[in-house]
Design brief:
By secondary structure, the protein is mainly beta. The chain is 4% helix and 36% strand. It contains one helix and ten strands. The protein has one helix at 72-76, and strands spanning 5-7, 17-20, 26-30, 49-53, 60-68, 82-86, 93-94, 100-103, 109-116, 124-128. The strands form two sheets. Strands 1-4-10-6-7 form a five-stranded antiparallel sheet, with no helix packed on it. A hairpin with a 6-residue loop joins β6 and β7.
Length: 139
């Protein structure tokens, strides 16, 4: 995706598709169904968890999650995704930026949030719906 790489090829990740949005610093993202590809797959689309690399310190990007289940009660109460940077920040933190949400004319629930990359030394930043726990951590 231009100079950026967005990936979801790790334990507990969830992202079906990503494309560049209206500008080079905007991304439109779609999730898989929760537990997609497993015997426990549901029709729910709440969980997202992905990483992005290729950024420089000081850059601002926007993410729009396009196909979520309606979660307006959460977001109306200032719910925000979590993020962590590698290698500078090993703990998850809530996003400092407010989330904008809406339902499209087609009935899809979307959220939009922005992030400013602060550390030029970071290799990758991860974003998730809430604090993730991998299958390995739960064994």
């Amino acid at each position: 995706l231009g100079k950026y790489t967005i990936r979801a090829d790790f334990d507990s990740a969830n992202l079906a598709k990503a494309k560049v949005g209206p500008s080079d610093h905007e991304f439109e993202l779609w999730t898989q169904p929760d537990n997609g590809g497993t015997p426990y797959e549901t029709g729910h689309r709440t969980w997202f968890y992905f990483g992005i690399s290729g950024f420089s310190g000081g850059e601002v990007v926007f993410f729009t999650m396009k196909n979520l289940n309606k979660q307006s009660k959460l977001y109306s109460n200032d719910f925000r995704p979590v993020f962590r940077s590698s290698p500078s920040m090993n703990r998850w933190e809530r996003s400092q930026q407010q989330v904008v949400y809406n339902t499209t004319d087609e009935g899809n629930f979307e959220i939009r949030f922005k992030h400013k990359f602060t550390e030029a030394t970071d290799k990758e930043v991860f974003f998730a719906f809430c604090y993730p726990f991998s299958c390995t951590e739960n064994e």
